[in-house]
UniProtKB/TrEMBL annotation:
Signal sequence region: none
Superkingdom in the source lineage: Bacteria
Membrane-crossing residue ranges in chain numbering: none
Entry keyword Membrane: no
The name this protein goes by in its record: Nitrate/sulfonate/bicarbonate ABC transporter ATP-binding protein
Annotated ABC transporter domain residues: 12-231
The species this protein was found in: Xanthobacter dioxanivorans
GO molecular function annotation: ATP binding; ATP hydrolysis activity
Family statement: Belongs to the ABC transporter superfamily.
Keywords assigned by UniProt, alphabetized: ATP-binding, Nucleotide-binding, Transport
Keyword Ion transport assigned: no
Length: 231
């Protein structure tokens, strides 16, 4: 496999990263190979517990694989990498900070100057449909708006690859649908500041709608069992 411009996961495995009460030899991922080229939207489906979130954590550099290699733009992933960001199903916001400040903090962490931070954060907030909510506090937000803050925080760094772990599944059907439609529109119009997407979902219809390719994970241990090309 090769993906100089994008993501390469080659025979990655993960053994026993989580503590199990019974001390069983847990193989979470075994021999996972995949690559994502720039421009692709790839979906990842599989049963609960098959290791999808673990794979995203590996790609983000939050978990170290026990075998195989993971490369991002030709370099091994050893920790959080520039150009990657992630949207989670649920996440924490600083309750004492406004929406704008919650988006800005990520840029502060990577050393973007203050004036630039404000401009880029407002841009991300506008893009994701949060305009008018800049000064709101997290507790004042609906579930859908809260999730949009998660997207704004991920998008504000202009990642080349956006990882999404069931970003709509905590939302009610209608709210999920609205947010999904907005994102698809932005993607099609080329307005998202990203090049590629890897998205974990339990919703096959959503995957068919959004993705160029869908990978299906097997369970226990997780590995790519099938691939469906759509585009
Ligand atoms: P889901 O669809 O439910 O989100 P998943 O495909 O994302 O599932 P992972 O969360 O990656 O699966 O879990 C893979 C394996 O690791 C499973 O066997 C799971 O039980 C185990 N696991 C995950 N998180 C923990 C944890 N915090 N403690 C113990 N075991 C865990
Ligand atoms: Mg998961």
């Amino acid at each position: 496999p090769q993906a100089e411009q994008g993501l390469l996961v080659d025979a990655a495995g993960v053994r026993q990263i989580y503590q199990k009460g019974d001390n069983a030899d847990l193989v979470v991922l075994d021999d996972v190979s995949l690559s994502i080229r720039e421009g692709e939207v790839v979906g990842l489906l599989g049963r609960s517990g098959s290791g999808k979130s673990t794979l995203l954590r590996i790609i983000c550099g939050l978990v170290k694989p026990t075998s195989g290699r993971v490369e991002w733009r030709g370099k091994p992933v050893t920790g959080p990498s520039e150009g990657l960001s992630m949207v989670f199903q649920s996440f924490a916001l600083f309750p004492w900070l406004t929406v704008l400040e919650n988006v800005e903090v990520g840029l502060e962490a990577i050393g973007v100057p203050a004036a630039e931070r404000r401009r880029r954060s407002l841009e991300a907030i506008d893009l994701i449909g949060l305009d008018g909510f800049e000064s709101a506090y997290p507790k004042e937000l609906s579930g859908g708006m809260r999730q949009r803050v998660g997207f704004a925080r991920a998008l504000v760094v202009h990642p080349r690859l956006l990882l999404m772990d069931e970003p709509f599944s905590a939302l009610d059907v209608l709210t999920a649908e609205t947010l999904r439609t907005d994102l698809i529109e932005l993607w099609i119009e080329g307005r998202l500041p990203i090049k590629s997407i890897l998205m974990v979902t339990h919703n096959i219809e959503e995957a068919v709608l959004m993705c160029d390719r869908i990978l299906i994970f097997s369970s226990n241990p997780g590995r790519v069992a099938a691939e469906i090309k759509i585009n």
